[in-house]
Amino acid sequence: MSAPARVTPSASETTSRVPRGTLYRGNEGMWSWVLHRITGIAIFFFLLVHVLDTALIRVAPEAYDAVMSSYKNPVMGLGEVALVGAVAYHAYNGLRIILVDFWSWATRHQRQLWWGVLGLWLATMIPFTVRHLMNVFGDFGGGH
User: Fold this and answer.
1) Alpha carbons within 13 A on the beta-carbon side of 122
2) How many structural domains does the chain have?
3) Which of 98, 80, 88 is nearest to 137 (CA)?
4) What is the pTM of this model?
5) DSSP 131
6) Is 10 contained in some domain?
7) pLDDT per residue as tens digits for the range 32-75
């Protein structure tokens, strides 16, 4: 009795439809993951700088005053909008992740929940941005 003949798979059977060398899939889950990581890293670095510049008050109060006065410019005002945006997205998406981790209905609806995160983020950021930039750049309405 001889061993069965070995069949060589065709090229179409051995090649994947997913491009090799990348994990990117381009759907909501990937964008949610990428934005969550980026905002988490950005918040970490902000907190690191914040702790360091606040620590200056004990070491060199004059340097602390100089650093604080350098923060009072329009570029930093835009940076504050970015910071609040990062914190808001990270928090809302973190709540979505908790829901997906603990409830099966949320796992089935994770795509809709992510769109809800974006909607809630916009509902938070639009009024905040308008109000904050009015404070940063002054009231352009000619108020007293």
Assistant:
1) 5
2) 1
3) 80
4) 0.75
5) H
6) no
7) 999 999 999 999 999 999 999 999 989 999 999 998 998 889 99
